[in-house]
């Protein structure tokens, strides 16, 4: 989608955090030197175009339970079937196809590690494929986004 | 969550998660809306949000972009086999690069020698190749092998739904 200068500034400035006060869009408008209406219209337009997924709190996942990154090496002919099976798990919140022998990459999230272990066993039994289990050991950077930089 | 300071906070926090995890409504005062839904006043709502953020239960309160829809269609998961003695220092260095959105240490497994993961995003394939080269230069001799796994399709992407899991 096309994004204008104000959208770009909004995202660059507030993807890491926004003012926590009453009428936050007025505070953002003051910082950006525009009106509150312009900020809201801009966010609405971004949201409709899909460029803004949401506004609000990001909760710390690891507090809520356990998670791991999983990879499967799926034969090309079985890809659609296995991907559909994996997506059917409510515990799967990201699933990406990647160009590698290990071509299916997804995140499993559950209330505790035994729950994850049961899911991994279930996946192996269902698909006949041995999952690569890659839980996070240390975070050096978590989803802080990145600057959009200059338009090009 | 177990981070709350009083028993009444627990119930409120659960409600707050349910109400906000899919995003706030785009209204002039979203916190007044949330306060109304929670049945408390705006100041108490802001104070609760501040406490949850200070406790680490809320990572950030922000406008969350969808970079893919904004034109950053190329994402590469770069994976590196880094000397264990050096990984704490080098992981922090790679995580601090502005073009890296996620950077984690993960365990090596049989047939998988890589212990450092760094995600890079770009508008085209040459962007992410350049980022990979920058990481390679930063790691130098401490890195024995690396690969970049480019994503060719997003098969599922939903935000985490704590509320749904709790009900399940």
TrEMBL record, chain A:
Keyword Transmembrane annotated: no
Pathway recorded for this protein: Porphyrin-containing compound metabolism
Pfam families registered for this protein in UniProt: AsnC_trans_reg2, NirdL-like_HTH
Catalytic reaction annotation: siroheme + 2 H(+) = 12,18-didecarboxysiroheme + 2 CO2
GO molecular function: lyase activity
Protein family: Belongs to the Ahb/Nir family.
The protein's assembly and partners: Probably forms a complex composed of NirD, NirL, NirG and NirH. All proteins are required for the total conversion of siroheme to didecarboxysiroheme.
Function: Involved in heme d1 biosynthesis. Catalyzes the decarboxylation of siroheme into didecarboxysiroheme.
Identification of the protein by name: siroheme decarboxylase
TrEMBL record, chain B:
Alphabetically ordered keywords of this record: Lyase
Coiled-coil regions, chain positions: none
Entry EC number(s): 4.1.1.111
Domain Siroheme decarboxylase NirL-like HTH: 14-59
Enzyme class: lyase
Catalytic activities: siroheme + 2 H(+) = 12,18-didecarboxysiroheme + 2 CO2
Pfam families, A to Z: AsnC_trans_reg2, NirdL-like_HTH
Pathway of action: Porphyrin-containing compound metabolism
Occurrences of domain Siroheme decarboxylase AsnC-like ligand binding (ranges): 69-156
Gene3D superfamilies noted in UniProt: 3.30.70.3460
GO molecular-function term, one example from the UniProt record: lyase activity
Family: Belongs to the Ahb/Nir family.
Subunit note: Probably forms a complex composed of NirD, NirL, NirG and NirH. All proteins are required for the total conversion of siroheme to didecarboxysiroheme.
Function: Involved in heme d1 biosynthesis. Catalyzes the decarboxylation of siroheme into didecarboxysiroheme.
Protein name per its UniProtKB record: siroheme decarboxylase
Gene source species: Stutzerimonas xanthomarina
């Amino acid at each position: 989608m096309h994004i204008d200068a104000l959208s770009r500034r909004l995202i660059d400035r507030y993807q890491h955090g926004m003012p926590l006060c009453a009428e936050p869009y007025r505070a953002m408008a003051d910082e950006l030197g525009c009106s509150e209406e312009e900020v809201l219209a801009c966010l609405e337009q971004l949201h409709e175009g899909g460029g803004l997924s949401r506004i609000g709190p990001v909760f710390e996942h690891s507090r809520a339970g356990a998670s791991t990154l999983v990879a499967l090496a799926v034969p090309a002919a079985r890809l659609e079937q296995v991907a559909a099976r994996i997506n059917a798990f409510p515990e799967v919140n990201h699933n990406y196809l990647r160009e590698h022998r290990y071509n299916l990459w997804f995140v499993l999230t559950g209330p505790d590690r035994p729950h994850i272990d049961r899911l991994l066993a279930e996946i192996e039994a269902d698909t006949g494929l041995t999952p690569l289990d890659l839980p996070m050991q240390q975070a050096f950077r978590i989803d802080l986004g990145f600057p959009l930089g200059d338009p090009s | 969550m177990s981070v709350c300071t009083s028993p009444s906070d627990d119930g409120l926090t659960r409600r707050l998660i349910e109400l906000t995890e899919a995003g706030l409504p785009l209204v002039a005062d979203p916190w007044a809306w949330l306060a109304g839904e929670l049945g408390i006043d705006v100041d108490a709502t802001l104070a609760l949000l501040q406490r949850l953020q200070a406790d680490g239960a809320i990572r950030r309160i922000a406008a969350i972009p969808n970079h893919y829809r904004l034109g950053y269609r190329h994402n590469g998961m770069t994976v590196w086999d880094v000397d264990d003695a050096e990984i704490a220092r080098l992981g922090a260095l790679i995580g601090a690069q502005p073009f890296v959105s996620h950077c984690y240490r993960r365990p090596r497994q049989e047939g998988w020698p890589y212990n450092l993961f760094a995600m890079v995003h770009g508008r085209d394939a040459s962007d992410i190749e350049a980022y990979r080269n920058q990481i390679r230069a930063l790691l130098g001799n401490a890195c024995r092998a690396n690969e970049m796994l480019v994503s060719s399709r997003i098969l599922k992407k939903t935000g985490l739904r704590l509320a749904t899991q709790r009900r399940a």
